[in-house]
Amino acid sequence: MSENLPEAHGASHGTDVATHGDPFADPGLPAHEPRRTDIDERAAKRAERQVSLLFVVSMLATVGFIASYASIDADKIVYIFPLGHVSALNFALGMTLGVALFCIGAGAVHWARTLMSDHELPAERHPIEADDDVRNDVIEQFKTGAAESAFGRRKMIRNTLIGSMALVPLSGVVLLRDLGPLPEKKLLHTGWVEATANKPIKLVNMNTDQPMKPEDIVQGSLTFAKPEGLEESAEDFQQKIAKDALMLIRIAPEDIKDTKSRDKGFEGILAYSKICTHVGCPISLYEQQTHHALCPCHQSTFDLADGARVIFGPAGHPLPQLKITTDEQGFLVATGDFDEPVGPSYWERPR
Amino acid sequence: MKKLSARRRHPLAAVVVLLLALAATGGLYAAFAPAEKAQADSSAQSLAIDEGKKLFAVGCSSCHGLNGQGTSDGPSLVGVGSAAVDFQVGTGRMPAQQPGAQVPRKKNIYSQAEIDQLAAYVASLGPGPVAPDSKQYQPSDDPVTNAEQVAKGGELFRTNCAQCHNFAGKGGALTNGKYAPSLEGVDAKHIYEAMQTGPQNMPSFPDTTMPEEQKREIVAFVRHTNDEPNQGGLALGSLGPVTEGLFGWIFGLGTLIVIAIWVAAHTTKAKKS
Ligand code: FES
Question: Which of A4, A116, B54, B110 could cross-link to B114 by cystine, CB 3.0-4.6 Å?
Answer without folding.
Answer: B110
